[in-house]
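COURSE: Structural Biology Practicum
ASSIGNMENT: Worksheet 4, Part C
STUDENT ID: 0417
INSTRUCTIONS: Below are two proteins. For each, the amino acid sequence is given first, followed by its structure token string. Answer the questions at the end about the second protein only.

PROTEIN I
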Amino acid sequence: MTMDDVSANGASGPVIGVPGYWHESEAILGNISTAVPDSYIRALLKSGAVPLIIPVIPSTKVLAQLFRMIDGLLLIGGPDLDPVHYHQQPVRGLRKITPPRDAVEIQVTRWALEADLPILAICRGIQVLNVAEGGTLWQDIASPLPDAEKHDYYPDHPEDFLAHNVKLHAGSRLARIVGDADLAVNSLHHQAIDRLGVGLFPVAHSPDGIIEAVEGAANRWIIGVQWHPEWLIETDSRMAALFHAFCEVCIDRGKTGLPTQVVRQ
């Protein structure tokens, strides 16, 4: 969407909140910046949405102001969640954690769930969604599940490498959107859902039984996928359809604001 499109239509697309993370580099003045990979931004723009990057900040009040601006929430990939959020101690295989980012993402996810905003959760995002709903994770798939397939193909393979297939449940929202029950997907994760969170339902599995996608109840637009569709939208129209469906429902839902109890914080 160009500025001419906005002027002609009198409005832009839905505003999608995208929690970012701290990126550290000696090339950055001050060494730290707030970042979101461009692959997610491009996928949203291609679907007609307006991305709003939510920074890693400790202020609930500021987060609430940002939350009021959004029509939907996109949870993106990244490092491991601190197992303290699902009442576990770290085990061997746990990798880098980022507690400040965890706090922001879990907070805005719970607000989005309470406000019934549409949610699309990708890779780490599906794990954040599950934990926000009271679920748990395998901290490192290979440790408790030695017979599981390899799932962490990056960085030894490119981000769009199709690592394995997933089987979608017939009749699920995800299957209806992509129009297929069998997808070849990329795989860049070493953690996965163990116990499902309240109100989430598995709708896709990898051949080894790992949960690869979840949805909310039928009247709630919540989809989480363990793969990275943003890297596949140029080569697989089904992945582009997922982003389009998300943005379309955000247009229909509109800005709902914060639940009353959140406003009072």
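PROTEIN II
(use this one for the questions)
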Amino acid sequence: MTLTHGFSRLIGRDPQEPHRTATPLELLFDLTFVVAFSQAGAQAAHLLELGHTTPAVVGFAIAVFAVTWAWINHAWLASAFDSDDVFFRVATFVQMIGVGVLAIGLPPFFHSLDEGHHVDNAVMIAGYVIMRVALIGVWLRVAAHDPAHRRTARTYAAGIALVQVGWVVAIVVNPPLWAGLALMVGLGALEMAVPAVAERRGGATPWHPHHIAERYGLLVIITLGEVILGTVLAISAVVELAGWTLEAALIAFGGMLLAFAIWWAYFTVPTARLLHVRRASSFWWGYLHIALFGAVAGVGAGLHVAAYVLSGTAKVDATYAQLTITVPVLVFTIVLGVLYGILVGRSDRFHLWLLVGTVAVLAVAVLASAAGASLGTTIVITALAPLVVVVGYELVGHRHLEDDLSRLAA
């Protein structure tokens, strides 16, 4: 084994490779996304505390897509071809620069959506294109070194390059708001079509199921950092006004319980084992995680809105703030159930009842807020919603999972 990191051939790795785990470089790469998620959440929270719901939601959805889509593409490519040579390291570094540039471009982007005239997305798109161009370079290197995957790699490189031309045009044209948003949505759809076209045209890449499951799980944990950050901001708002009160304790307990329950609910599913036997389900599973990442980051943004309300600077009330937490938790629960159904290839009544129980708890939180309950109280109630999934799995759901694993193994 060499101890240096020169140039080496970039060829497909063994998808059954034992002990395959995330590399230190991948962990460093993930850390840059902390800034991007934090910036998107902070900008959305600022608009939400003013009551500007539509620009906040639209801006947050686009920002989350841009951030997570670039991460997803890198994660799957690295799972299949990472050689950890100097070229791959430098290409990853360039993508890290792109994440930083994208994050810098988010404040003017959100502000332009709020103004409602033109979309100021030039810096944000520039950061995104930097990430994508670096990825094109890696795909071209795969095409040069790996004959078995040459057609797939060339299709990836060509498809991504063509869409980047569209993004650059979007910067130059600077259309009105509605046209700019429509153009971004259209280009986003083309981005998502590239992997499907490339792998159908040239064959599937040799990604590693256990590695991919770990990579997605790690990004979920990083995104949960936004929930913890939002909790700290909310606690700070209460403490600065009234000191350490029961309300501050409730927010601290509820926010941390919410993060912990979301983590527990997500990791109840043995994703790696299921992806191993259900590789064909990987596309929808991977794509739908965009909504799941957005939901988890959205919980953090909602807690940030709660901090504004608790500090007395928001133009919205506590019930509005509670809804900004409730809705992302609901989206997380729905997407998590759908992801499980995709992995096992079926749905059942038990998981529907888990969803009903979750909705019931979230409804209680909103109704309690409307009736005058404090945000600390309603945040604790909200934290019980993902616990419905956790308790259901630990008591009954694990038997359904065992049946599904046996059925798929057979």
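ANSWER KEY EXCERPT:
Q1: Residues 375-409 form the longest helix (35 residues).
Q2: The chain has two domains: 24-202, 209-409.
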